[in-house]
Write a structure and sequence with these properties.
It contains 4 helices and no strands. With 95 residues, it is an all-alpha fold.
C-alpha cells in the first residue's frame, strides 16, 4: 500500500493557536493524555513544522498576537448552533 503525504493548509491564525496548544500538550504527561504512543510522533512533527513556520512565536508581543488570533477564530455567540457547554469538549462523533 502506498503511503502518500498528507498536506494540511491552515490560516496563520489557525497555525498560531494550534502551535500554542500543541506546546501546552507537549509540556504535559503525553502518556496520560494520549494513550497510544504512535500518536506522539505525528504530534511532535506537526508541532515542529509549525514552530519552524511561525516567526511570530518569538515576537515580544506573542501573547497579544495569540489572543487576537484566538478571538478571530472563536465563533460569534449568534453564529453557532452548538450549545455553549459543548464548545469545550470534543468527541469522535463530532467529526
Amino acid at each position: 500500500m502506498e503511503n502518500p503525504e498528507i498536506i494540511i493548509k491552515l490560516t496563520s491564525d489557525e497555525a498560531l493557536v494550534l502551535s500554542d496548544w500543541l506546546e501546552q500538550v507537549q509540556m504535559t504527561d503525553l502518556s496520560r493524555l494520549v494513550g497510544d504512543a504512535a500518536v506522539w510522533a505525528p504530534l511532535h512533527r506537526i508541532a515542529g513544522t509549525l514552530d519552524k513556520s511561525l516567526s511570530g512565536i518569538f515576537a515580544a508581543d506573542y501573547a497579544e498576537r495569540l489572543e487576537a488570533a484566538r478571538s478571530r477564530l472563536r465563533p460569534d455567540l449568534g453564529d453557532s448552533a452548538i450549545d455553549e457547554e459543548d464548545t469545550d469538549t470534543w468527541s469522535p462523533s463530532r467529526r
